[in-house]
Design brief:
With about 130 residues, the chain is of the alpha+beta class. The protein has helices at about 5, 10-60, and strands at about 70, 90-100, 105-115, 120-130. It is about 40% helix and about 30% strand. Strands 1-2-3-4 form a 4-stranded antiparallel sheet, with helices on one face. A hairpin with a 2-residue loop joins strand 3 (about 105-115) and strand 4 (about 120-130).
């Protein structure tokens, strides 16, 4: 029996090709994981901002905020954004205008914030009745 044929294994080229394929697959997996984490951060930040804007509308309807256009100070907000959230530099602006019906106002609440150096905008619109 020939000893060369019974102890045959992988050649160096086959091992290098296999390791290269494995490295490329793991890099693609890490890239997909990072993209999913960034998408989660964006969604979480958007959720926090929408909660903030909905809180502004609730405060308007309850009469806790004056019905006038302009920036809303952070101290006047009902549901301030959680410090755990990745949102930074949040600015909330309110634009209110009277409609043709008395005591009914069209209100637009818009928010601008920064997440990882990128600027984002969100806007909600509603009607508010003030007796």
């Amino acid at each position: 029996m020939d000893c060369r044929n019974s102890l045959r294994g992988f050649t160096l080229v086959e091992v290098v090709v296999g390791l290269t394929v494995l490295a490329i697959a793991s890099l693609l997996g890490l890239l997909a994981l990072q993209q999913s984490r960034l998408a989660f951060e964006r969604l979480d930040a958007r959720r926090a901002v929408l909660v903030e804007l909905e809180g502004v509308f609730e405060a308007l309807r309850a009469g806790q905020l004056p019905l006038r256009s302009g920036e809303i100070a952070e101290t006047a907000r009902v549901f301030p954004v959680s410090p755990i959230s990745a949102v930074s530099d949040l600015a909330v602006r309110l634009d209110a205008e009277a409609t043709v019906r008395p005591k009914l106002y069209r209100v637009v609440a818009s928010a601008t914030w920064t997440l990882r150096g990128a600027e984002f905008h969100e806007q909600l619109e509603s009607m508010v009745f003030r007796p």
